[in-house]
Amino acid sequence: MKETDIIIIGAGPVGLFTVFEAGLLKLHCHLVDVLPQPGGQLAEVYPKKPIYDIPGYPSILASELIANLMQQIEPFKPEFTLGEKAEKLEKLEDGKWLLTTHRGTQIKAPVVAIAGGLGCFEPKRPPISNVRDYEDKGIDYMVRDPEKYRGKKVLISGGGDSALDWTIFLADVASEVIMVHRRDSFRGHLDSVDKVMQLTSSGKVKLITEAEVSGCNGNGQLSVLTIKKNSGETIDVNTEYWLPLYGLSPMLGPIADWGLNLESKSIVVNTFDYSTNVKGIFAVGDINEYPGKLKLILCGFHEATLMVQSAFAIVYPDKKKHFKYTTVSGIDGF
Q1: What is the mean pLDDT of residues 16-41?
Q2: Considering the chain, what percentage of its residues have pLDDT values greater than 90?
Q3: How far apart are the C-alpha atoms of 164 and 145, rounded to whole Å?
Q4: Which pairs with CB-CB distance under 8 Å and at least 24 residues apart come from 140-144?
Q5: What is the distance between the alpha carbons of residues 174 and 154, in angstroms, rounded to a whole number?
Q6: Is 125-244 in the same CATH topology as 2-121+248-333?
Q7: Which residues are CB-contacts of 42 (< 8 A; sequence separation ≥ 6)?
Q8: d(C-alpha 269, C-alpha 148), whole Å
Q9: CB distance 212 to 229 below 8 Å
Q10: Domain 125-244 class?
Q11: pTM higher than 0.90 for the full model?
């Protein structure tokens, strides 16, 4: 059995930043993640996706952000249990928590921080009967390496940030980019919408709104998509790749059985310190829910910063915490 101060479930960007903030308070962390490497969705699903809302970075690739976070937490020597699912959580007689993974690894700590992002997830598939026939044969629900689409014809469906961001990025990679959205307005950031409109005006992107993909065909490999407009008109489009970026369906998995207050597959928290209804268990990042919640990485960073202040009081109930600025003392001063 391993022991630590804080068990962090989820090694995505928010989980990693939690290590940094905890380290400033001399709290040691052990991260558990079902994925085989740190980084969460940014490493596994969107490693080459550009991110535009990290302070100090006009644009940074998801993989670079994770690399920077790993470098930032290296002085605090966190431990990792990767490729294992957090399966069972039980309260011990001494008041601490015992986490057991599906492979039997056990970790003990007075504090548990759930930073599992969307939890377990799977892509939202289009309601087309034969869509699975072309998965990995022209249909991709996520972009792992944009170089795959260099010089290719690509059609992107969706109206959120992911669809907008990849439309902007692939406009300089693919030979042709078509974006299809069932409405004439978008859910993503206004700046991204403006950029797509500019690319459309310049002819680098073809935008088809008030329409959606209704069929896919090909001889073993995707080659034709049928687009149905809201007016009822249908058109066939030749393409080599279709990216239906409709988001991911979250599933909490075993976490749903831990006695936590849940709302719409998210964990309800107190915004004072992002604590749950169970003392000693906190939830930060996309997995939590509260009035005004925004599912942004930078919001998760803020949540982690406040959370570790209360975690310190649980780990060291008799110690007085002194807040220090890293710009004054430096990491070595903590």
Answers
A1: 93
A2: 74
A3: 17
A4: 140/241, 140/242, 140/243, 141/243, 141/244, 141/245, 142/45, 142/46, 142/245, 143/46, 143/48, 143/49, 143/243, 144/45, 144/47, 144/48
A5: 7
A6: yes
A7: 12, 13, 49, 62, 63, 65, 66
A8: 41
A9: no
A10: alpha beta
A11: no
